[in-house]
Amino acid sequence: MTDFAATKAQFHLPDGMIYLDGNSLGPLPKTAPAVVDAMMKQQWGDMLIGGWNKAGWMAQPTALGDQVARLIGAEAGHVTLGDTLSIKVVQALAAGLRLQPDRKVILTDNGNFPSDIYMAQGLIEALDQDYELCIVDPAEVAARIGPDVAVVLLTQVDYRTGAMHNMQSLTQTAHQSGALVIWDLAHSAGALDLDVSACNADFAVGCTYKYLNGGPGAPAFIYVAPRHIGQVEPMLSGWLGHAAPFDFAPDYRPGNGIERMRVGTPPVIQMASLAAALEIWKDVDLAQLRQASIDLSEQFIDLVEENCPMLRLVSPRNAAHRGSQVSFSFSEGYAAIQALIDRGVVGDFRAPNIMRFGITPLFIDADDITQACAIMADVMNNRLWDLPEYKVKSAVT
Questions:
Q1: Which of 251, 384, 280 is nearest to 35 (CA)?
Q2: Is 13 in contact with 351 (CB distance < 8 Å)?
Q3: Can 211 be counted among the known catalytic residues?
Q4: Catalytic-role residue among 184, 202, 348, 368
Q5: CB 75 within 8 A of CB 257
Q6: Do residues 123 and 95 touch, judged by C-beta distance below 8 A?
Q7: What is the pLDDT of residues 276-324, one digit of tens each?
Q8: What is the pLDDT averaged over residues 143-162?
Q9: Quick check: is 209 catalytic?
Q10: The predicted structure's pLDDT at residue 344
Q11: Is residue 1 scored above 90 in pLDDT?
Q12: Residue 129 — φ and ψ, nearest 5°?
């Protein structure tokens, strides 16, 4: 039985703040500063370059990848970490296209995170092989999958509304048509009870700074199914994806297994922070986490709709179709979020009018939801958001 009071106690949460933005950047694990400090002083400081061998820096991407694998239902030895999520999207997409040489369509939806779409567009231009990016409404994905589709590229949970694709059903539909599927788990890992292996996913990518609490800039991950890993030819054939990087051979030869999906030097300091965060997850039952998320989300929706009638729910009402976030639309959503932040309730804004709130049971409980909703009612019903300073947009919204 997961003790969520105990997990909450393991995070630094500023006094008076109710943090409903863990879906964008997770809070600081209390142990992370000491872990990072020890890494910097005792490893980097004392070992210097010897840390690559003595402290195991070179093995970190796959060692931590195995810990992430447990959280997404992946086979051990098939997840590695490093680089950014956008880089991992390119790796997976290019690899998938090479496995499908007779097909030219990449299928995605307009609920996908824009960066995934941008990277697909850039890859198509770089390859210059008549690939086509087909973008449809989320509800139309299954019907559009056909014999021309090489790869389906989807973010499982819509970053704006929290609407959730059915991974198992869509993967099965794609495979029936001979297409491969890449799942972006940026808003899923650490929020849902995932099983990419049972769903027969081909590839999965994701970040570790949201629900996994690895810190800003924490490394991304990539999963390749066992049936594909021996055939995958990385387009980004980086030095550390080489079978023998310290042979310094002039030609690339892909590494064994998931090692071939590595690109550049591991971000060792960031991985130390992530390692501290992943320790918390060792005591978390993901099915219980998911149920707690649903319970808190239902409480949040009920209280907001009861007390803030000017806000319109844009997340799916059915919890089975919703990730671990709740979003409402409001014409002055940006200003309203700023007013809430000023009063200690931290959510965020997504254009054009979405007020977005992450429901993260590791550090949010029922009392937090009650207090947050009371503050929201005050802000909305008394128009406390209607001040000029709340309408000046910052660079990051």
A1: 280
A2: no
A3: no
A4: 184
A5: no
A6: no
A7: 999 999 999 999 999 999 999 999 999 999 999 999 999 999 999 999 9
A8: 98
A9: yes
A10: 98
A11: no
A12: -125, 30
Is there a catalytic annotation at residue 210? Answer: yes
What residue type is 92 in one-letter code?
A
Is 252 one of the annotated active-site residues of the chain? no
Distance CA 37, CA 243 (A): 32
Q: Which one of 144, 160, 210, 322 is the catalytic residue?
A: 210
Choice among 4, 19, 159, 209 that is catalytic:
209
What would the pLDDT profile of 335-381 be if each residue is shown by its tens digit?
999 999 999 999 999 999 999 999 999 999 999 999 999 999 999 99
In the structure encoding, which two tokens stand for residue 45, read together?
């400081």
* Residue among 4, 11, 19, 113 flagged as catalytic: 113
Average pLDDT over the chain reads 97
| Domains identified in the chain and CATH numbers | 4-29+285-391 (3.90.1150.10), 33-281 (3.40.640.10)
* Residue tagged active-site, from 356, 357, 363, 368: 356
151: left (phi over 0), alpha (psi -120 to 50) or beta: beta
Decide if 41 is catalytic: no
- Which residues, in sequence order, are CB contacts of 119 under 8 Å at separation 6+? 86, 89, 90, 93
- What is the pLDDT confidence band of residue 396, given thresholds at 50, 70 and 90? confident
